[in-house]
Amino acid sequence: MSMKSARRSRFLRTALGTTILACSVAGTSSAMADATITIATVNNGDMVVMQKLSSEFEKQHPDIHLRWVVLEENVLRQRVTTDIATKAGQFDIMTIGNYEVPIWAKQKWLVPMDNLPANYDVNDLLKPVAQGLTYEGKLYGLPFYAESAMTYYRTDLFKKAGLTMPASPDYDSIRGMADKLTDKAGQTYGMCLRGKPGWGENMAYVTTLVDAMGGQWFDMAWKPTINTPAWNKAITYYSDILKADGPPGISSNGFNETLALFSSGHCAMWIDSTVAAGLLYDKKQSQVSDEVGFAPMPTGTFKGGPTWLWSWNLAIPVSSKQQEAAKTFVTWATSKEYIALVARNNGWVAIPPGTRQSTYDNPEYKKVAPFAGFVLAAINSANPDGQTANPRPYTGGQFVAIPEFQGIGTQVGQTIAGVLTGQSSVAQALAAAQSATARTMRQAGYPKK
Q1: Which one, out of 93, 163, 180, 427, has a CA that is 20 to 30 A from the CA of 356?
Q2: Three-state secondary-structure class, residue 243
Q3: How many Å apart are CA 415 and CA 405, to the nearest integer?
Q4: Residue 284 has what pLDDT?
Q5: Could you read off the pLDDT of 340-354 as tens digits, one per residue?
Q6: What is the reported pLDDT for 405?
Q7: Is the Cβ–Cβ distance between 72 and 300 less than 8 Å?
Q8: Biggest alpha carbon distance in the chain?
Q9: Residue 33 — pLDDT band, cuts 50, 70, 90?
Q10: At the top level of CATH, which class does the domain 35-147+310-368 belong to?
Q11: Radius of gyration, alpha carbons of the chain
């Protein structure tokens, strides 16, 4: 080979190597830019809408791909708790409640939501909702929707029966009206309530009922107070009204199943989350949208106790390897722009509620949501830290804000469901729940010093 040919050969090899290296770097850069994030969420209606509309996010962010894991509420809680506690890293985004957020933030399991973009407008978040997601001055989750609780009723059935819903109903009047409204032959039930076992299913409602009857979960020494007259009164009421005036198969009915019963015309009354209002008033989803009335939660013998405040939130576990991409999606899905996207596609009545002041200032929303002012006031005045009839060492309106409650609440929920199915009496169930809870608390080291 001549010197000239050798020089040409070296030049070609160098050029070819440079080209290969450039292609390799470009390929690496492209691969690094692409991210697939796995989102664990609950199968509630608003989250199903989020999954459907997320194609808009992927159009705006072609380098971020979404993988969805949509689960029933109890299963979701079990899966995400196991994943985060073991640092398995299955999920990049978790849908969790204001129960989990501060507890998990304290454990350093969650990524703080720092440096949010200016247009996210964090000051627009309703203060009680943001406060429930804050630990040591930092947000550790962003709210997708938030809720208090209320009483729903069928105005047409009340009119037909000659009944009027009181402005401030109590549990005695609710029971009397439920008896008059029940028509089992016509498959209309005077009262629908959650019966499916779970700390966030049947026990969310049962805890508020116990508080209203003057009870609580623990005394100031962290001893369970389940096998007490107040709990007996609450569970007897719960069991009696559902056996007399509830639908069949009640122990299988959680939030979604009860929502389906009411929206298809089978319930005269339902006491549950305020988030159901938008679903019940939505003509696309509810057969009774023109016949829904609402009132506050009923009161019992003890008034002014802790109140229901819940939010479903999107949070990022520290085990995620795609934290930046995950944060991009979380801010999008909880933004004012996302709410407007839902409104454009499904109507303002169907937006995820309870998170932003701008939602409740919007005249388009107020026009189609007669419940808007009521819900805003309920959330803003919610007092999950309020006191029960006797002093208590914990906070929470429809849950107990300690890590052990997830297991305790679910176990007691199964015991209470057994009363509805006739497996045990109220007295037997409360004795068993008291014993099991006391054992769990001893094993967990309570009272803690």
Answers
A1: 93
A2: helix
A3: 15
A4: 95
A5: 999 999 999 999 999
A6: 98
A7: no
A8: 110
A9: low
A10: alpha beta
A11: 26
131 CB neighbour count, 10 Å cutoff: 15
Give the DSSP per-residue string, 70-126: EE-HHHHHHHHHHHHHHT----SEEEEETTHHHHHHHTT-B----S--GGG-GGGB-
Query: Which residue ranges make up each domain of the chain?
Result: 35-147+310-368, 149-306+384-443
Q: What is the pTM of this model?
A: 0.91
Q: How far apart are CA 129 and CA 61, in angstroms?
A: 28
* pLDDT at position 131 over 90: yes
- What mean pLDDT is reported for the chain? 93
Q: What is the pLDDT of residues 407-421, one digit of tens each?
A: 999 999 999 999 999
pLDDT at residue number 448:
84
Given this model, what pLDDT does residue 28 score?
34
3-state SS assignment for residue 270: strand
CA gap 101, 313 in Å, rounded: 8
Looking at this protein, which amino acid is placed at residue 273?
S
- Per-position DSSP letters for 281-333, written without gaps between them: S-TTT-TTGGGEEEEPPPB-SS-S-----EEEEEE-BTT-S-HHHHHHHHHHH
Q: In 3D, which of 277, 321, 13 has the Cα closest to residue 153?
A: 277
Cα–chain-centroid distance for residue 422? 29
- On whether the 149-306+384-443 domain is CATH 3.40.50.720, my answer is no
Other Cβ atoms closer than 10 A to 383: 15
Confidence of residue 6 (pLDDT cuts 50, 70, 90): very low
What is the spatial distance between Cα 375 and Cα 409, in angstroms, rounded to a whole number?
27
Contacts of 374 (CB under 8 A, 6+ apart): 150, 274, 294
DSSP code string of 341-402: HHHHHH-GGGS--SSBHHHHH-HHHHHH-TTHHHHHHHHHT--TT---SS--S---SSS--S
Asked if the domains 35-147+310-368 and 149-306+384-443 are classified in one and the same CATH topology, the answer is yes
DSSP 323-334: HHHHHHHHHHHT
Half-sphere exposure of 309 (CA within 13 A, CB side): 28
- Cis ω for the linkage preceding 447 (within 30 of 0): yes
pLDDT at 8 over 60: no
